[in-house]
Structures are given as structure tokens and as C-alpha cells.
Amino acid sequence: MLASLAWWGLSAALWLVLVDNTHFQELVAGAVVACIGAAAALIVRAQRRFVTRPRPSWLLRLWRPAMYYLRDLVPVALALPRRARGRFVTVPFEAHRESPREAARRVLMKSTGSFAPNTYVVGADEERGILLVHQLVARDDVAADVDPLSLR
Q1: Rounded to 5 degrees, what angle do the CA atoms 21, 25, 30 make?
Q2: Both 127 and 65 in a single domain?
Q3: By C-alpha distance, which of 88, 90, 94 is closest to 129?
Q4: I need a surface site. Which of 27, 87, 101, 131 has the fewest CB within 10 A?
Q5: Is 61 among the domain residues?
Q6: Is beta strand 130-135 parallel, antiparallel or unpaired with respect to 87-92?
Q7: 82 in a domain, yes or no?
């Protein structure tokens, strides 16, 4: 019950921030949307097998993707007017047994690998141990671009 109220409150607050309007109709619509959002959040929460547990050292390196972001801005901005198509590359990626720490490693690697504008993790084939990556502007060390936290 507490979780549903918390999710409803967060969803309602997000609605108010986005619509920037407190007319009665908007408040009613926001309440309905917040109910839907809270229900969706609880359904997703019920599907998880465990809570991720990243190592503190991984979190201390979260500044690195921001540096990659700044580094990639100029090359990507120059490539856009030329309508560069980029390239797809596979990168080796070890998927270990299921555990909260391993789940955190996979989530962090896929999300931080996609943070910079030049590199995007399209998908992972954990059985074959590869990540499919798209780069707009080709760089020499794709593996380093995909893994700014050194999680591989």
C-alpha cells in the first residue's frame, strides 16, 4: 500500500511538472494518469527477481561517461550535416551467473556505454557474450567507449 501511494505521488508530481497547469480538468487527468503510472510501476517492480547491488567503486567512476559525452559532442556535431550513417560493431562481453552484483554490472555497462552521443549499445547477446554497438563516428577503441567504468 505504501509503495503504491509513493508511486502515485511521484507520478502525480511528474504530471504537474510536465503540464505546468492546475486547472481542474488537468488535475483530474493527472490523478488518472498517476493511477496508471503507479500500477505500471508496481507491475514492473513485481517482475524483478532481485535488487541490483553495484560495487561502490563502480559508482565512484560515474564521472567518466560525462567526459566521454563532452569528448563526443564536436565529432558528432560535425558528422550530422554530412548525414553519416555510422557503423555497427560487436564487442566481447562476459555474462556471468545471475546475481544482484552481476545484474548491476550489466545494467551499468549498457547504460553508461550508451550515454555518450557517439556510441549506443543496441543490444546484448549474453549467450554468445557480445554487445552490438552503433557508432556514428568510427573510433579506434570501441570497447573502451562502450565500457567507461571498466566493468568488462
Answers
A1: 70
A2: yes
A3: 94
A4: 87
A5: yes
A6: antiparallel
A7: yes
Please tell me the distance from the alpha carbon of residue 10 to that of residue 47, in angstroms, as a whole number. 20
- For residues 60 and 39, state if they share a domain: no
Q: Report d(CA 27, CA 24) in Å as an integer.
A: 5
Q: Is residue 151 part of a domain?
A: no
112 and 72 in one domain? yes
Helix residue spans in 20-99 (DSSP H): 24-47, 56-60, 64-79
Range of the domain at 12: 2-47
Is 119 found in the same domain as 139? yes
Q: How far apart are CA 88 and CA 133, in angstroms?
A: 6
Which whole-number Å values give the CA distances from 140 to 17, 75, 122, in the listed order? 42, 14, 19
Tens-level pLDDT at each residue, the chain (152 residues): 888 899 999 999 999 999 988 899 999 999 999 999 999 999 988 888 778 889 999 999 999 999 999 999 999 998 888 887 889 999 988 877 788 888 888 888 889 989 989 999 998 888 888 889 999 998 888 888 888 888 87
Strand order in the sheet with 119-125: 87-92, 130-135, 119-125
